[in-house]
Structures are given as C-alpha cells and as structure tokens.
Write a structure and sequence with these properties.
With 518 residues, the chain is mainly alpha-helical. The chain has 19 helices and six strands.
Length: 518
C-alpha cells in the first residue's frame, strides 16, 4: 500500500517543481505573457454590440456629446456619473452605431488596466506579479464586462493607476515630487469618482496608509493628516456638490436622489437595519466567492438565506481569502489593501444584488489575496495557482465562444428589423412599452431610437398608460389591442376601442431577412 502512495506523492512533488520552474520562467519574461493576454482581448473586438441596459445609457450620453454637442441620456436628463461615457465619445465620429470603435476603446482601456495591475503587483509582490496579473486579466467576469459598454473596465483601470500614484506618493520624500504626484493623484481621484461615486473610498485607504506610517514613526502626523486631506478633499467636495445637486433636483421634480437610494434602498424598505446588514453581508460573501472560484461566476443564491447551498460554499472561500488579505495588508499596508474593508463596508450598506459588479473593482486584490493564501496554506502553491489560472481562462474562453458570442451575433442579425421598428415609433414618448420582448431587442430599440422604452412586466400593468405595445410577432394579441405593424420577429400592437378593428389597421412591413447587412 505504501508504494503506490509514495509514487503518487513523488509525482505530485515533481509536478509541483515543474510548475515552480514554469512560474519562474514566466516571471522572468512578463512581456511574452502580457502580449498573449493583449492578443486574447484583441480577438474579442468585433462589429457586434453586447447589449445591456446600463450600456445603452452610457452610449446615449457619449453619442449626445459627440453628435449634438450637449449631454443627454436617451433624450432626457443625465443623472448618472459621466466619466465613462466621456471616454466613449470619440467612437461616434464613425457613425450612429460604431461598434468596432467602441470595442477598440474597451480594448485600450483593458490594456491600460493590465499594465496597471502588473505595475501594482510588481511593486508589492514581485515574485507573483505575472501570476496575479494573469489571474485578473483572464477572469471570466472581466471578459464579460470588457465586451460590453459598461464602466467596470474603465473604473478599474483608473482605480488601479490611482492606487499606483497614491502608493508612490506615500513613499515619496522629495517636496517637488510630492507636489507633482499629489496633484496627479488628486486629479485621478476626482475623475475616478466621476466614473463611479464609490471611487471616493480610496481617500480612506490612502489616509489609513499614511496614518499607519505615522503610528510607526515612519512619517510625521502633520504630513499624514495634511497630505491625505489635500489629496482627498477635491474628490470629496466634488462628490458632495453632485449629491446635493441631485437632492435638490429630486425635491423639485420628484423622485429619489442617489444618496437616498443608497441610505434607503427600495429593495429593503421592509427590512430592519440588522436584517439589511445581514442581507448585504450575505450578498458580498456570495460575490467574493463567485469572483474567486472558476465556474462560480453565475452561482447565485436561490433564496435570501444564509442556508442556501451556494452561500455555504462561498463562506469557506471568503474565510481563506480573509487570511490572504490579512497577511497581505499586514505585510504591505498598500493603499488598495487598506481600502478594501471600506469598499466592502460601503457595498454591505447597500444590500442590492448587482451580480458581481459591485465588488468587481476589487478583483486584482482578490486575486492577490488568493495567491497569498495559496502560498501560505498549501503544500504546492505553484500547482494550485496553476489550477486556478487554467480554470479561470477556460471558463472565460468557453463562455465567450459557446454562449456569449453566438447569442450576441444572433441578436445583432436583427438590426435591420430594429431599424424598421424604430422608424415606426414616431410617437409621443411614453405612449409605448415593450411586453414579453427579449432584453436584447428592447436594449437595441433604445439604442437605435435614443429614447427610453419602458418594459411592462405583466399584462395587469398595462392599464390605460400605453397606446402601443411592442411584442414578439408570435405573441398573442392583448385585449383592447390589435396588431398594427409586424416587422420580422417584432410586432407593434395598437390600442383600439372595444368594438370592431378597422380593416386597414393591420399591415406587414417588409421583412429585411436574416442575410441583410447590419
């Protein structure tokens, strides 16, 4: 019995040594690996739009800036951060739907992110820099957001470079370089906050890093407090003025402002504060687990309970990562590590399930904590790290090739249909809504018309609010409505009197066919 066991141990030991040598070679030749990552991302550039409703808003704002010289969101007021849409603006010099140009911009942002992560990892943990960068850049979640016109890649790219500048500022002793780096850091913090308001929490991590240095006598308390205040104050003041403006607009025009949505989210109005904290913590535990283990990205909890099987799987993962984070923060005390508890705390206070979008900006830190934990609690860290790396890359590639790309290409084949339906919507805004129409088609209609198109979740919600309903062509006719226009797979139903339908009401537009050019 001992011989087979000894042979197995010897094989594992040799494989571990092989992985060790492989990672040493990779760390000595980072340019090769970073080039491979850049090419993998470049292959995903294409003439398709991966639909999302938030993405529609960002595209609309960017298009309005470029084409109209004004800022509007689907023809209305802009009430979301505009830092990301500004980056998309140049794409619309190439047309109304410049999907290739948008993809190229996303690719450039991803490259900036990749070098930012590598620089951060190399400064903090040189022996793991390539591993951490690769774990981050081949992550299925990163690829998912990268293909869409969503702010995640831009936010993370600016965040990691802001961290790099702040970290350099913490260590700087030259007065001139301190002034230059402080000005750059303050500017980046302002812009980061204008991409996503939560970026302002970096101020807390930066201040904590300086205060810890002062506590250990490595800098003066005056420098710690003064530098963190001067660098962080512009972003804090800007965010405060934006939130106050939104509050004023909400009080004048009705509705909920951003701050009230954060402190009093509608999704938890019936919960007590302890229940709300518990729910927020459960959601963040789930997000960390889904972001860390390959294949769990979409492993959502089926019920709002700590006893859900997915949550029970995520808890030990979070405990292991907590060990890695604690060791990392204790050893390095870098700005990103010290920002992490503040950022997670903010997310816990807003117990809204955003998939993995809320904690996604902490992905490089999670991958670093994972690598740190693997090195401290496993016997063969290179082997375990290699398994995670191959696992994340495999999930990212297979999900794109087998699911996301085919679904997106099929949806984009409907652009000729979407164009014709949009031409039929020369109607008062608010008089029409979609019913039982796919999310892709509704998002595409909003993008094409540059107008908001609400979705009716059930027939009971129709009431007397809408005169037209946009439905699948094979959907049953709704009571008090009749088919008005049928364009390929989409129909527009028009409200009628309860009596007879006029004979000339039904007409069918020419179906452009699936082979028509986009």
């Amino acid at each position: 019995m001992s011989k087979p066991f000894d042979s197995l141990c010897e094989m594992i030991r040799r494989n571990g040594q092989s992985f060790e040598r492989l990672f040493e070679k990779i760390d000595r030749h980072p340019k090769i690996f970073l080039t491979i990552i850049a090419l993998l991302l470049a292959v995903q550039i294409g003439p398709w739009w991966y639909s999302s409703f938030d993405g529609t808003n960002y595209v609309s704002i960017a298009r309005s800036i470029n084409i109209d010289g004004e800022m509007s969101n689907l023809g209305g007021h802009v009430d979301i951060p505009v830092g990301y849409p500004v980056l998309l603006t140049p794409a619309f010099s190439f047309g109304w739907r410049p999907f290739v140009a948008l993809s190229v911009i996303q690719w450039l942002l991803a490259i900036v992110l990749m070098f930012g992560v590598y620089h951060w990892a190399w400064k903090q943990f040189p022996s793991m820099a390539v591993s951490i960068t690769t774990l981050t850049m081949v992550h299925a979640g990163l690829w998912l957001y990268y293909r869409r016109t969503l702010k995640e890649i831009a936010f993370l790219a600016v965040l990691i470079w802001t961290v790099n500048v702040l970290q350099a500022l913490v260590q700087q002793r030259s007065v001139l370089k301190t002034v230059l780096l402080g000005t750059l850091a303050a500017s980046l913090l302002v812009y980061l906050t204008m991409i996503r308001y939560a970026g302002v929490v970096l101020v807390a991590g930066f201040g904590m890093s300086l205060l810890i240095m002062a506590w250990h006598g490595r800098t003066s308390w005056t420098r710690a407090i003064g530098l963190s205040s001067v660098v962080g104050l512009p972003a804090v003041l800007l965010l405060g003025s934006v939130l106050l403006h939104q509050k004023s607009v909400a009080e004048t025009q009705g509705g909920r402002d951003y701050l009230k949505g954060l402190t009093e989210p509608q999704s938890v109005q019936s919960q007590t504060y302890p229940q709300r904290i518990s729910n927020g913590l459960r959601l963040r535990v789930s997000e960390i687990g889904r972001l860390t283990v390959p294949g769990l990205l979409k492993a959502t909890s089926s019920k709002e309970s700590w006893l859900d099987i997915n949550t029970l799987v995520h808890i030990p993962i979070v405990l292991i990562l907590s060990i890695g984070w604690w060791k990392l923060a204790s050893d390095r005390r870098d700005v990103l590590s010290l920002t992490f508890p503040f950022y997670v705390g903010l997310c816990i206070l807003w117990p809204f399930d955003g998939g993995t979008r809320f904690l996604f900006p902490m992905l490089p830190l999670l991958m670093a904590a994972l690598a740190y934990a693997i090195r401290r609690i496993t016997l063969l860290p290179p082997t375990v790290t290699g398994v995670f790396l191959v696992g994340h890359a495999s999930v990212a590639i297979f999900y794109w090739v087998l699911i996301d790309l085919p679904r997106t290409v099929e949806a984009n084949n409907d652009w000729p249909i979407i164009e014709q339906v949009a031409g039929e919507l020369d109607l008062p805004v608010g008089s029409y809504a979609t019913l039982e129409l796919s999310g892709e088609k509704r998002a595409m209609l909003q993008l094409e018309t540059d107008l908001p198109i609400p979705d009716v979740r059930s027939r009971e919600q129709i009431g007397s609010h809408f005169s037209y309903l946009i439905t699948p062509a094979d959907a049953p006719v709704i009571e008090n409505f009749a088919p008005s226009v049928v364009v390929g797979s989409i129909a527009i139903q028009k409200r009628i009197d309860s009596e007879a339908v006029p004979a000339n009401l039904l007409r069918t537009a020419e179906d452009p066919g699936a082979d028509s050019p986009l």
